[in-house]
Amino acid sequence: MKISLEEIAKTLKSVDNVVILIHHFPDGDTIGCGFALCRALQNLGKKARVECADEIGEQYGYITENFVFDDFEPDYVIAVDVAAKNLLGDIKEKYQKIDLCIDHHATNDFYANKTFVDAKSAAACEIVYEICRKLGGIDLVQASALYTGISTDTGCFKFSNTTSKTHRIAADLMEMGVDYAEINRIMFDTKSVSRMQVEKDALNSIKFFCGGKVAIMTITKESRVNSGAKDSELEGITGLPRTIEGVVLGITIRERDNTDICKISARSNPPVSASDFCTLFGGGGHERAAGCEINEPKEKAFEMLKNAAEKMFEELGIK
Amino acid sequence: MKISLEEIAKTLKSVDNVVILIHHFPDGDTIGCGFALCRALQNLGKKARVECADEIGEQYGYITENFVFDDFEPDYVIAVDVAAKNLLGDIKEKYQKIDLCIDHHATNDFYANKTFVDAKSAAACEIVYEICRKLGGIDLVQASALYTGISTDTGCFKFSNTTSKTHRIAADLMEMGVDYAEINRIMFDTKSVSRMQVEKDALNSIKFFCGGKVAIMTITKESRVNSGAKDSELEGITGLPRTIEGVVLGITIRERDNTDICKISARSNPPVSASDFCTLFGGGGHERAAGCEINEPKEKAFEMLKNAAEKMFEELGIK
Fold it and tell me: What is the domain range of residue B264?
């Protein structure tokens, strides 16, 4: 059932012991939503805590350090930035009944008792910003959490999901004293040594085809093991090949642990469809970003991808 | 002599043949200012053109393609985003008298007849945005140019110079239809193959000291020559070492062409002062970003920098 922002604010004022669930592999947006909303409720004198199936990254310490959570029996359970129940990860069994879901994914499947979805919001934190305002104002802890969610979900206002409203909310939050430059330094200009190592190996592996229009990069098992990089440290690395000038199809081969399966990511620029390309290998996705799996060693996968790309470019008449 | 925005608008309405000068090695802000202002004047039926000592990068084609410039004798000469006359480069002799300067550098030395400086503006384009509004409104060509200047001078709203006003202006410009996602893709997510090559070599060269707190990277003459990278393609590369987690002093050695002089860039995080460090070698700069030159081959420069960093960290008691 749908619910309005006004009804959300009214309901939240009437409940006392609230658990806020954020999605597994937590990112800036779900963390920002969870902690900002938690603070808003605590500021109203209510008991509130945030729960997540996975550990929250150390880089978000400037948000989480402001919170101490009590153990209590909730009378109201909220999920924020969680499009489907299985995205709660290992805590989905613990909370069978979700009273309220606040989200910005068009794919939300209305698993909660009441749901507010605004797919035009670049970040779920834009919605929580409105709710926090209705709950009695935004303090610096909330503002920093909300800015984090908005900034990270838009690639620092870079991506097409950013709207004029996104910028106006960021302006408001900055005027509340958010240390946005430091937040952005942590979120966008800090790479772990392991990530740097994998990136170096990956860059060294790049091969070009079709006159520089296709780039194939390989991330080997060996590189990941030697560097000690966790999966969470490699976020966004598959975008690298397409950032090279002239490349319209950037392919990343990621060798899996303990199997011969290679995970393939493709990123494209017009007129090439990454989705069409991945469909050739039984995968799919969006027009500009898609994926598939190839059940072969990386060298074989490389040859298959190269041949498929060359054939596709010939058929499309791209020279 | 100082001039107000109102007086600028009044003056610009009264002149007919205007040349707008932008600084040499032109960046997004000076280009955005120049072309937006030029368009505003052309929309008022005036003759106007932009002049630059250096070629404007191809990546700015979506701005420049909207302009055809006539040759005419100017009755008014404006410099935008040009803090000192020598930053005009090779055209500084051609235009002895500058009637008006519009700038956001606190270091502006008031070389023009009339000057408007607002050092609180993250980009000079923020000032030109106000002027364009006073001159009769902003069309899509102007809006795209202004957005480019604002986005590039703030690292896409990432850096500390960004203000709430910056965001509100960006919001206004976006509502005029600017293709901000494509502009940001060109400006921030596109690297030339040469740049990628140099970056790869540079990453391979990084050495860590002081328990990972100091990183020294070397950009060799050989790497630049082999890759064919122009200086303009290497913008920002010296920031790389400091982006590595844990690094508080990131040093870049850039081997010069045809000489033994090495150009050194240092970037730091608290409590280390890049400026103090570079002062040891007769250089200087800002607290977090400074530079110097070492008149030695790169291997010798490397040893000197390493030793100086280790000594400095010992003195500061950083472990």
Answer: 193-316
Q: Do A160 and A288 fall into the same domain?
A: no
Interior CA angle at A117 toward A116 and A119, to 5°? 160
The verdict on A176 and A304 lying in the same domain is: no
- Classify the complex by whether its ipTM is higher than 0.85, answering yes or no: yes
8 Å CB contact of A171 and B174: no
Instruction: Assess whether B184 and B84 both reside in one domain.
Output: yes
* Chain-chain contact of A164 with B156 (C-beta, under 8 angstroms): no
Among residues A104, A151, A97, A92, which one has the least CA distance to residue A131?
A104
Domain boundary among B170, B188, B206: B188
CB < 8 Å to B189, chain A:
158, 239, 243
Global pTM value: 0.90
Tell me how many domains chain B contains: 2
Query: Which CATH number do you get for residue A146?
Result: 3.90.1640.10
* Structural domain ending residue among the three candidates B188, B205, B231: B188
The answer on A52 and A93 residing in a single domain is: yes
Q: What pLDDT, in 10s, does the model give residues B26-66?
A: 999 999 999 999 999 999 999 999 999 999 988 999 999 99
The per-residue pLDDT for range B141-184, each reduced to its tens digit, is 999 999 999 999 999 999 999 999 999 999 999 999 999 999 99
Please check whether residue A189 touches B, CB under 8 A.
yes
Whether B184 sits inside 8 A of A244 (CB atoms) is no
A175 contact B CB<8A: yes
Q: A167 and A240: one domain?
A: no
Minimal CA separation from A95 to chain B, in Å? 37
Q: Is B170 on the interface with A (CB under 8 A)?
A: yes
Mutate to test the interface with A, among B59, B162, B288 (most CBs of A within 10 A): B162
Residues B148 and B252 in one domain: no
- Residue B196 tokens read as 């990628």
Q: Are A154 and A294 in the same domain?
A: no
CATH number at residue B203: 3.10.310.30
User: Least CA distance to A270: which residue of chain B?
Assistant: B182
Residue B161 has phi, psi (to 5 degrees) of -75, -15
Q: Are residues A114 and A261 in the same domain?
A: no
